[in-house]
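Async update (no meeting this week)

Hi team, since we skipped the sync, here's where things stand on the single-chain job. The sequence we agreed to prioritize is pasted below, unchanged from the tracker. I ran it this morning and attached the output directly underneath so nobody has to dig for it. Comments welcome in thread, and please keep replies under the output.
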Amino acid sequence: MEKKIVQLHINPNAAATLRRIQKQLITKSDDFCVSFCFDVKKNQCKMVGGHAPEYAFAAQDLNDDIQTLNTLRSFSLSGDVFENWLRSASNLQGLTGENFITLNIEYHSKESNPSIIIYDTKEVSLADEQSDTDAILARACRRQIKTHHPFEAHRQFIDSDTQRGYQKITKSTCQNLIHEIKPHLPFQMIEFDPGTKELKIMRDDRIDISETNLNIELGQSFISSEHGVDLLGHAIKNTADNDILIQQENDRLIIKTSEQCSVLSLAAIDEFKQKVADRLDVLSTFTVDIRPFKFEVEELRKFKDVRSQDIAFFVIKQEDSYLVAQVKGETHTKPILVPNLSMKSQEQLIVQFHLKEFIDLKVRNLTEMREMKVSVYKNSRLETYLGFFDHAKKHIPTQSLSVELISNVKKIRAINKIIEDHKKDKGLVKKEKTGENHTLDLEAMF
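Output:
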């Protein structure tokens, strides 16, 4: 086979991501390069670069020239060659008026790596700009450069992306979120909590909390740095997709569309979470076997009157916790195990919550996890929440459920009486002798 020159056409959205990738490259680093990885079966080329751990790729569908050459090998360009090509290709696009930039690849089946051809058009005169593409290229300075094997970490980045479980968020939702965040610039870190509808902002190592009216569906809180919000805006601007894919992965924020995927390191996230946790008034923490608990809530909603009322009480106490619902003289009482409870043995908390709101929670791993960390806390407006964590070591809940902390003594007595009656029916307590009166001193407990 003779040498053949083929063109890879790169659309404006992918080109915009390549310009961001080029700015992330660090001279003299091991990953000072950009890899062009071809997948003919998927009809795509993924162009990967950046600096670890903040890699990104731009995805480009293959044009006919590349598709017909199904043996074209993947390759990489050094960072300086990539920068030179991207600048020259953009200048050439400006002269030709084409709606894409071009990478000219010289290929031979017997060679391990192809070469690329860079056309430098900066010396092309104004008169030549009126010529067609071939005439412009004939007058441009032509350089041919040998490519290298793809960088292995870039291949691994592409492979790892297929394993991620992204959260899908509509583009309009992301736009509304950015609209709420922008007035708070500049900042170090920011979090939007969909449960409380609050923005928690870290600026100058201090936490501020701002209320919003955002009523948007997120499976978990969105946590980002200022750069991450900028990256989200870039993804929105440079995609034809209706949805943006987002994944919070430990100390990394990953944003993806069909055209690109970018990873952002959130180095300050642990400090941020600790500062937010210090600001919350945590009344109690414990663990609960979440699947049986969710099952009991779903069972309660099968009763028509309970479903209509949609209210239950969660009684939290050492070795004496219950799920309680009462409608029209009918009571439903179920013991709940809450290990690792942070309260003293005689302390008790009772919270009222809406059953459907709990069932609709979108906590990641809600159905897979067994023991889930849960907290009862108050925010800066003294509103009470049940916070659910997808990892025991986290300081901030992944998702929160608005609840009412029961402080009315008569209501507390009534709920405790339901529990005592349940115990008697089950033979868990001895019946009192006639004339004896053992009343719980609930006022002393609160």
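Quick observations from my side:
Residues 286 and 341 are 4 Å apart (CA to CA).
Confidence is low (pLDDT under 50) at residues 431-446.
Reply here if anything looks off.
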